[in-house]
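cron nightly-structures :: item 1 of 1
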Amino acid sequence: MNITSKKAVPSDCIKAVCACHASAGKRLRWAALTGVSVIGIMLLLGGCGTAKSDEAAVISDDAAVSSAEDNSEAIIELYGYQFDAKATALDLTEAYVTSPDELLSKVGEFAGLQEIDLTGCRMSNEELADLQSQIPDIEVKWNVKLCGVDVSTATKTLGVICDGVNPEHLIVDGLHCDIDRWEGIENIVFLHSLSEAVIHCQTRTFDLSLIEGMNQIETLNLWGRGIENAALLGQMTQLKNLSAACECLPKNTDFLGNLIHLEKLEIYQSTGTSLKTDHINYSTLRNMTQLQSLSIAVARQEQYLECVEAIKNLSGLTQAKFSFNPGVYIDCSLLNETAIRELSIGFLSDPKTIQSLFSLKNVTKLTVYYYSKYDDQIEALREALPDCEIICG
């Protein structure tokens, strides 16, 4: 039987019990010091007015001592710090840790541990990454140098902005940090919690091989002629959201068909007035069965037809935006064969394209970009589609 109460025993009660059992004074003194309850003392003494001997006491001294130990909080010593055994996070910043072995041996003593901060310890990035791989259910975080900026490996969102317009900078979880020098960019691989990355590189070179193995990245935004090895996107099959300027993409884009988990895809042209997206293979869209939102640039009518054919069976694709070259005829009535309910389209300059909008049956929200000379046709469109919200861009 264990005694777990930490309630202090009233002094007058102790005196009364002492009067009945003077011979058990030794155990009483121990009980008063350790805070055993009144009932506990009665059990130790065998009860007031009874003839039970000390040897017949219900609870032995050893059991009582064990109970007292159970009541105390377990403290674990680690690198000169003291931690409660129930701790969920360990702050070991600046601790003198040279090997993960001792740390690993202690980690198992913390049943609910979720995070270890090893910022400023003596271990290398590679050693810390190896430690993280050995305890994947516990987040190990530290700082790495990224373009001269201290960046925590626990960073969730990162922007690398070298667009030739704004000063070069990083955006670390929303915080803007000026880039001192283009060094250590390869340390991005240690950001094990990174889920969203924005890489805009026009004046610098960024090789996608740096992040192709970072399977935790779900959202990726690419822009600029400094993006290299973009075909490696085909290896990042975990992506859910991809936005890319067509200038970033290689001539062969068949790799897009590997991105079967995409929920949102945007391919646009960031420079020039004439779209040059002929190299984009939109037939690969048919593999993206989880796609919900699509925004693409279409250079010619054949490319549009290729796209419509590919998305016919994508039942989750309810939002779409099509941009195309002026003068290109786009038959919007074909979109009735898709699940699209919210449509954005432009730039409208062909009368036949505008006329095809009148045939839309399933679209409930339509945004159109057009020349003002077509105002009358757009007003007629509103009357023809009374259940559709029409927004003029």
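cron nightly-structures :: done
Confidence is low (pLDDT under 50) at residues 1-61, 63-72.
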